[in-house]
Amino acid sequence: MAKILAKNGTIVIPTVGVMTELLFMHQATKSQLHISVLNIPMTKALVDESLLKDYPVSQQHPRYLTWLEKLDAQQVEGNMQDALLRLNAQGVKLLIGSDSANLAMYQGVGFHRELFHLARFGLSPWQLIKSATLDAYAFLDIDWQIKPGADAHFSLHSADVFQDISLSTDVNEIYLYGRKVDREPLLHYAKPGLIQYAKLFLGFER
Questions:
Q1: Mean pLDDT of the chain, nearest integer
Q2: Cα–Cα distance measured from residue 201 to residue 204, given in angstroms and rounded to the nearest whole number
Q3: Which residue among 38, 60, 65, 91 is buried most deeply as judged by most CB within 10 Å?
Q4: Residue among 180, 12, 55, 44 nearest 108 (CA)
């Protein structure tokens, strides 16, 4: 199957994070929880604490706990990893998508967690960054380059991200149309209250 996909130029967006984040926290050690989505600074900045209290999944949610135990018993994560590596070995082009707003895949954070789990499965940081940027632009037919006259949308990270993809959440600076974005005021929209939601919903603020 992987050979056929590669031959036909099929693009695959794995979205492994939806299940792997939950499984990663299931019966996790203290060190695993420390590097889970619950404890990275980006999550704490962007996600309301009330949305984090249900994880790791416990007896408080027996239906989801039973589902996770079945996934664990069926070695779903190992099967996903095997399938991904087979696709990669055959040269199937992989793009990055997070399936954000799913269980434990928070908006703004889920994309980075997808990168984290794909790296756990064996893909290199270099490949993942290329899949998330240049390959995505090519797929969308976007001429993205750093050159005079270009839109100049980019973010700045430590070069260490090419060794440890989990550092992708440590964003030093963001530029849109060549202008540095002041991110501090935007955090007001990350955890909006009822009035703020109403303004956004009604279109008073965009």
A1: 89
A2: 8
A3: 38
A4: 44
DSSP string, 100-111: TTSTT--TTTHH
Determine the Cα–Cα distance for residues 80 and 88; give it in Å rounded to an integer.
12
Could you tell me which residues come within 8 angstroms of residue 53 by beta carbon, excluding any fewer than 6 positions away? Answer: none
- List the structure tokens of 25: 């926290």
Which tens digit of pLDDT belongs to each residue from 30-41? Answer: 998 999 999 999
User: In terms of Cα–Cα distance, which of 26, 31, 136, 40 is closest to 71?
Assistant: 26
- Quote the radius of gyration of the chain (alpha carbons, Å): 19
The secondary structure element, H or E, covering residue 206 is none
Q: What are phi and psi of 11, to 5 degrees?
A: -95, 135
Share of the chain above pLDDT 70, in %: 94
CA gap 29, 156 in Å, rounded = 32
Q: Of 98, 94, 135, 131, give the one whose Cα is nearest residue 5.
A: 94
Residues recorded for the chain: 206
Residue with tokens 């095997």: 82
What distance separates the 2 farthest-apart alpha carbons in the chain?
A: 57
Closest CA to 92 of 203, 1, 179: 1
Residue carrying the six token digits 């993205």: 144
Structure-token pair, residue 68: 């996770």
What is this structure's pTM?
Answer: 0.88
